[in-house]
Amino acid sequence: MSKIVLAMSGGVDSSVCAHLLTQEGHEVVGVFMRHGIQMNAENADGTPLRRKHGCCSEEDAEDAQKVADRFGIPLHVMDFHEEFQQIVDYFVREYSTCRTPNPCIVCNALLKFGKIFDFADSIGADHVATGHYARVKQVSEVETQEYRIFRGVDLTKDQSYVLHRIPRERLSRLIFPLGEMRKEEIRQLAEEAGIHVAHKRDSQEICFVPDGNHARFVRDFLFQKNGEYPETLGDFVTVDGENLGPHEGLERYTIGQRKGLRLAFREPHYVVRLEPGTRRVILGLHEDLAQSALTAGEVIWQIPTPKRAFDCEVKIRYRSPSVPARVTPLEEDRFHLEFHTPVYGIAPGQAAVCYWGEEMLGGGWIL
Fold first, then answer.
1. Cα(276)–Cα(191) distance, rounded to whole angstroms?
2. Which residues of the chain have pLDDT under 70?
3. Structure pTM?
4. What is the pLDDT of residues 21-42, one digit of tens each?
5. H helices within the chain, ranges in order?
6. Which residue among the candidates 55, 56, 207, 312 is catalytic per the annotation?
7. Facing residues of 237 across strands?
């Protein structure tokens, strides 16, 4: 049996992982990540802050401890305030430059498969496990055995997209106990095992923005840092150049957004482009979102670095379907994508992740 460090969030997924791993006879050591980011408990007008369900809260820590006690697992609460601050800085920086960040990808690379691996090494653990819906498999190359990431069996929950930046050399030590299971099976198993969080809601929001109001978080963060709110007001303008009047701040909008524009149109309009220089929000019809190509940078491959162009499928957002594309590797850890048919809502700052069937090949940030 192995010594395994398990990331425990207090949710049903990691709790079932604890059940499965201890049932198999492994020595499991739990880790709960505390982000230490102070969040206001009320809005600017004094009303209570409406919180959606996130993670890393005091309630989550208590749930994780109860599960750890239930299965006789030691639980280490680790303060990652400095590391989380890096993630917050990235989040705010991206929004401030009209890009759409994905902090969960950065958190996975920096913390769950970075700092937690360091902790595992410090206690002589063999593996690190998490409750991600993905699979790690051993595959045969010409002369070597390699480990690769594959989609989870439950495609409605598959999280391989947010794992593309994990260093390849760590895959052999990764365990995803839930990769072969579906969500309904996991909740049923949790109920049968008497786990008290069997029906706890999944985390839905970024942990340091529990009310889901990204724009307010960005503005408040920059105010606390600089002593003044950033100047982000500007105008809505159509793709044809018609000025539709003022908007409420660039940080409130992302590419592909339709709701929350507070404008009346005969046909649905979407955010097609954001212009940080002019502070304009460009609106258009759905067909105006169509693009046939993109370039991605800071690419990390989970396969030997490709030297020639190849066909595969690509996801441009976590919730978007994968679509056929031609990938051409470029210098400086970049690649160029040409889609077989136009795609809609390509957002700079999101990740473009490549697949061959169920296997995740790698990805990079959309430029």
1. 50
2. 36-56, 141-143
3. 0.91
4. 999 999 999 999 998 665 554 4
5. 12-23, 58-70, 81-96, 103-107, 116-122, 183-192, 214-226
6. 207
7. 243, 282
Residue 226 one-letter amino acid: N
Render pLDDT for 119-155 as a digit per residue (tens, 0 to 9). Answer: 999 999 999 999 999 999 998 766 677 999 999 999 9
Q: What number of H helices and E strands is found in the chain?
A: 7, 17
* 307's tokens: 């030297």
Q: Which helix (H) or strand (E) covers residue 138, if one does?
A: strand 134-140
Catalytic residue among 17, 98, 104, 107: 107
The residues, any chain, with a CB within 8 Å of residue 358's CB and separated by 6 or more, are 150, 151
Is 107 a residue of the active site?
A: yes
Is 207 tagged catalytic?
yes
Q: Please, what is the end-to-end C-alpha distance for the chain in angstroms?
A: 45
How far apart are alpha carbons 185 and 300 in whole angstroms? 33
Q: What SS3 string covers 45-90?
A: CCCECCCCCCCCCHHHHHHHHHHHHHCCCCEEEEECHHHHHHHHHH
The pLDDT value recorded for residue 151 is 98
Q: How far is residue 300's CA from residue 286's CA, in Å, rounded to a whole number? A: 31
Residue keyed to tokens 């309009």: 269
